[in-house]
Amino acid sequence: MNNIKKVLFLILFCLSTGGIAQTIVQGKVMDSGTNLPVVGASIISLADNNSILNYTYSNNNGLFSIPGAENFILKISALGYSEKIISVVPEQDLEFEIMLDPQAFDLDEVIIQAERPIRVKKDTIVFDAKAFAQGNEQVLEDLLKKIPGLTIDAAGTIKVGNQEVEKVMIEGDDFFERGYKVLTKNMPAHSIDKVEVYQNYSNNRLLKGVEESEKIALNLTLNEDAKRLWFGNLELGYGLFSQNRYGVRGNLMNFGKKNKYYFLTNLNNTGFDATGDINNLVRPFRINEPASIGDDQVKNLLINLSLNTPNFKRSRTNFNNAELFTANAIFNPHSKLKIKTLGFLHWDEKDFFRKNVQNFQAIQTPFTNFEDYSLKNKEQTGFGKIDLNYDFTMSTSLESVTKYQKGATNGISNLLFNGVSTLQELETNNELLDQKLSFTNRFNDKRVFLLTGRYIEENTPQDYRINRFLYENLFPETGEINNVAQKIQSRMSFAGIEGHLLDRWENGHLFEMQAGSQYRKDQLNSSLELKEGENISQIPPDFKNNTSYASQDLYLKSKFRLEMGDFSLIGKLDFHQLFNSLEDEGFFDTEDPFFINPSLGLDWKINSKNRIKTTYSHNTTNAEILDVYNNSILTGYRSFQAGSGSFNQLEASTFLLNYELGEWSDRFFANTVLIYTRNHDFFSTISSIEPNYSLSEKVLFKDREYLSLNSNIERYLKLIGSNLKLDIGYTKSNYKNIVNESELRDIKTWNYSYGGELRSGFTGLFNFHLGTKWTTNKINTENFSNSFTNNVSFLDLSFLVNEHFETELKGERYYFGNIQEDNPYYFMDIDATYNIKPNKVSLSLEARNLFNTENFRNFTVSDIGSSTTSYRLLPRFALLKLKYRF
């Protein structure tokens, strides 16, 4: 392993050194008539076969720079000028002064069209979809994976460089906000004409040019034959040589100038997740966003029946039976009024299978538990949203967003625990009402005021039952107890109002001031019922909670950004006055702490290719309901958790350093982020662990440290017309706890990860996509130490034989450390499509898990022992699909 690390480090060093030391061709674009600089001229470097190597555009002074390594061609063009083409020999030519000749034309008589695969318009980069499509794209996500600089991970999260996009819009309108995966995983790709990347994006149009934004959004423009008419597709699939496998997907769309409609349905039991994380749709969380008051209000569940499969592709273990329907519309009944409606219905029945051997070692009496766990989980979610945006004038607007969600989850788990059958049942209901009003007034080009109010009400009751009594040592005098139930009533109310002033000065300085009040009240009622049959025998008082926790935050926040050429100084100073109250079974207490959260940072654009950002902050946060309740709550069949029973404010200091070499659209780009956090106060646990149960109580400890270093490197390779991506990560942390009356234990953890991927960009018959990632985890205490290394690798090969036939082979390899048997694991999938009528009717065969691997095992470590877990996989199946576009 050490040799592998050394080789990898040498490769990375050579690549990064080559990226830094490569020849840079520089120049200035001038108007030959006036001898003035030409701003926004497009400079594209082309290989001998006319494939694009790189691109850039001239700045306000007409200057540009572009990487060069071998002989290539520069194409320089600008609107109103004749195009110029120059052959470049980097060994001889390093600097150019390019004179463009004005070209007069009459727009009434001549139409000028320029077809370029990549165009730059101020803060927007436009990609021509046809130039990057390889012909085998089925849904939007498949197309976006092939756009240079865009990265889509296994869950469907889209990043530009190292930053997740805010939203994916269609013709300038947004349907799903952060829940864009519903769109990208289902919308057909053939209708897309252009993919536009908006840099420095503002969610509120009246903030454009005033707020300091580094947000990124995508906008999709459609082909002319897909505008202002109904179109869509339908896919019908059924299993061959497999039992009852099916997949149905339908899209129906109309994107007009005034009204837009998008209807989607997806039904499948093939493991495909058509929605992504639904929380991103219901609660799109934005950090430090104007008018985002209440976005950080999260309500966590106390009990969950596990469906997690760490370090493995989710679709291989997702025994689902899902139905999704969503209806979305955008109306413009008046030039000043826009109405967005969203309706979302989702049902899913999931089966989950797991076997587990847990070795508890770092405690006084070691023991081993055996679990054979199967779960049937039924989920139902309904969600609706109405977004009204009214523009009183060009400089004032009012937005109203109303959301309502109602859902239910019912899970039944059959658990064989140490050879004895145990049945768990969990019923969770959820109801959410969320109303936000935001008024924006732009006084002038540089000053904006926002007034925002929000109200949230959420209720989440849970009913948990176990048909066995495992806690004789905890409750020794309980008679004939043979089953246990726990009922939880959890309700949250939030109300807030905030005023926000942004003032951008003529010299570029930005000053912000926020003043507001936020009030949140949580009510948590729980009771553990020890039962004989259906009769309640006992409700232990130490396992019952009737907690009401309220907190009001009156705050004043200030922020400034001082622009000093290429150097910016950024400071924040937040004042908080809290009024907390805690009530539990006759106990009542209040407190009114005051604290200040300061922050100071800098943003230094050293030159066009190097940038450093750094921030130091000191933050005090208020404890939440799950920290302050007093008595124990059953959070799993063998786990009890108690809160601290008191008020607490937690202090932490954080230092961040970010270095960027190049930009994400350059031939070479590297981004490194260092984060160091010191928690001066943090919650940990005092635990009592026995074979049949664990009992933990939250306790406040001092001094915890966390260090994270991550680096992403991308280098464009001309030979394959695509980027090589490398990722390196390192984290180190420590925390403390007490287990079984031990001394205070200091636990240290380390994580190392390194890997990369490469996707070809050929335009012919063949393309490939390959990658690998290695992860090493280590944990160490005074009397216990363990580690393991995992690897995931993949190789995808696609063949576009002709316009009628295409196929793709997907291979995966998984290796899990400390597993001696059945290791590694290999998988193969095949997709083959015959286009009966190109762009209209096709027939495809999708085969999954061709080697018919039935389960996999992995290894994990914790501060109290290790665990070996076996998961069941979806068996081999093949799906025959008929696809029709209309």
Describe the 3D structure.
Strand 30 (544-564) and strand 31 form a beta hairpin. The protein is mainly beta and 886 residues long. Helix content is 5%, strand content 61%. The chain has six helices and 49 strands. The model is unreliable at 1-22 and 105-114 (pLDDT under 50). The chain has a 33-stranded mixed sheet that branches. A six-stranded mixed sheet has the order 8-9-15-16-13-14. It has a four-stranded antiparallel sheet with strand order 3-2-5-6, with no helix packed on it.
Q: Which secondary structure elements does this structure contain, and how are they paired or packed?
A:
Blueprint: H1 2-21, E1 23-31, E2 42-46, E3 52-57, E4 63-68, E5 72-77, E6 84-88, E7 95-100, E8 118-121, E9 124-128, H2 129-132, H3 140-144, E10 150-152, E11 158-160, E12 163-164, E13 168-170, E14 173-174, H4 181-184, E15 192-198, E16 217-222, E17 231-240, E18 246-255, E19 260-268, H5 279-282, E20 322-334, E21 337-360, E22 367-391, E23 396-417, E24 420-444, E25 447-459, E26 462-466, E27 483-504, E28 510-532, E29 535-538, E30 544-564, E31 567-584, E32 587-591, E33 594-605, E34 610-622, H6 625-628, E35 632-636, E36 639-642, E37 649-661, E38 668-689, E39 694-717, E40 722-739, E41 745-759, E42 766-781, E43 784-800, E44 805-815, E45 825-837, E46 841-848, E47 855-862, E48 865-872, E49 877-885
Parallel strand pairs: 1-7, 13-16, 36-39, 38-40
Antiparallel strand pairs: 1-4, 2-3, 2-5, 5-6, 8-9, 9-15, 10-11, 11-12, 13-14, 15-16, 17-18, 17-49, 18-19, 19-20, 20-21, 21-22, 21-48, 22-23, 23-24, 24-25, 24-26, 25-27, 26-27, 27-28, 28-29, 28-30, 30-31, 31-32, 31-33, 33-34, 34-37, 35-36, 37-38, 38-39, 39-40, 40-41, 41-42, 42-43, 43-44, 44-45, ...
